[in-house]
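Complex 141.
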Amino acid sequence: MNSDCIFCKIVNKEVFAAVLFEDDDIMAFMDIKPINEGHSLVITKKHAVLVDELEEELYLKLFPIGRKIANKIKEVFPETKGIMYFIADGEHAGQEVPHVHLHIIPRKPNDGFDFTFDPAYYDRLLTEEERTKVKDKLIPI
Ligand SMILES: [Zn+2]
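Predicted structure with zinc ion bound:
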């Protein structure tokens, strides 16, 4: 529990959230600024800023709940054509609330939401050698 954290306040029922799911470890609620109708967040009740601060067992509990929510969204909002499962892990990755959260984002055609890239991005495919060089830096994982 972090007393400055809005998600911890939601866990402690000090701040309202439209709660979809709750058990001993996990809570899921509606995003206050949804990209599309049904956009939800799945969090661990335990406060952690980054994924790496969570025990693996706890981290993995986010996903089954996220999938259940995603399936329900597709059922209830048939205009949903895909689901983006998204975790921004760190401020420079776009994390706005410093408490690990899995976004369940319903997507529909031309919904105006997208990652943006520098135009040069589209002109550059890595060669086999370049990909291998990066891979060699990362292994063993
Ligand atoms: Zn927190």
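The chain has four helices and five strands.
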